[in-house]
Amino acid sequence: MLRFAWRLLNPVLDWRRTGRALREYPRFASDWRRYRRLGGVAPLTELYPQLHDRLETSAYDPHYFFQDVWAAQRVAEHRPARHVDVGSRVDLVGFLTALAEVTFVDIRPLEANIEGLTSVAGSVLDLPFDDRSLDSVSCLHVAEHIGLGRYGDPLDPQGTRLAATELQRVVTEGGQLLFSTPVGRPRTSFNAHRIHAPGEVVEMFGELSLEEFSGVDDAGRFRRNRELSDLDGSDYACGMFLFRRAKT
Asked: What CA–CA distance (Å, rounded) separates 228 from 215?
């Protein structure tokens, strides 16, 4: 019940960050006084407390860090002339322009003018591409949100499956799709995300062949070339799937 209450109130009351900030204020005040005694200029009106950065190691989100590295490496290996990303993290989209021309599709267009990037307003449920026309596609940590209204998209309990159907539609013969989503104990956490069993994800892409399954477990450990069963029953793991359409 406490966990449920925390999830409901977290959008306006992040108690963990608030608690850490309150603990850090005395250190901040002490550092400010010592800095001034050392001759530093730090007027009261220019104070800008940063209370969450004194850490023993560099912090990162295991899902997003490992999936982005994994995806960039797979794109580099495939060496496409153009890569199409659907709704993934915009940092990754920008970095991929070092490897190929990139087209980014999202219901919220990316208004950033950089060399090698084209941003297109569109939905993963209705991609602006012909059937079997794309050689390299990614959609990372996106499809689990579709149909839950989180980003202003229409409500639909079948949102993830519909997204999978549309993604596989556009992959050409010999082309690859990089797909990631939370995996583990199947459930819907409205309106954040869905979690699917790894085997259920593979079933959604019946036209494509699974070439690689990698992922991050509940302890934040990344490993390539896992068995699908490795992450069955997880609470909130991240499955990374490399699908390919066979050549005929």
From this structure: 10
- Spatial separation of the C-alpha atoms in residues 128 and 212, rounded to whole Å: 27
pLDDT (tens digit per residue) in 70-80: 999 999 999 99
Q: Are 72 and 96 in contact (CB under 8 A)?
A: yes
Per-residue tokens: 226: 């896992």
Residues 19-32: tens digit of each pLDDT: 888 999 999 999 99
What's the CA gap between 74 and 70, in Å, rounded? 6
pLDDT at 2 over 70: no
- In angstroms, how far is CA 26 from the centroid of its own chain? 36
The answer to whether the predicted template modeling score (pTM) of the entire model surpasses 0.85 is yes
Residue 8 CB neighbour total at 10 angstroms: 9
CA angle 112, 118, 121 (to 5 degrees): 85
Angstrom distances, CA of residue 238 to CA of 118, 141, 151, 172: 28, 8, 21, 26
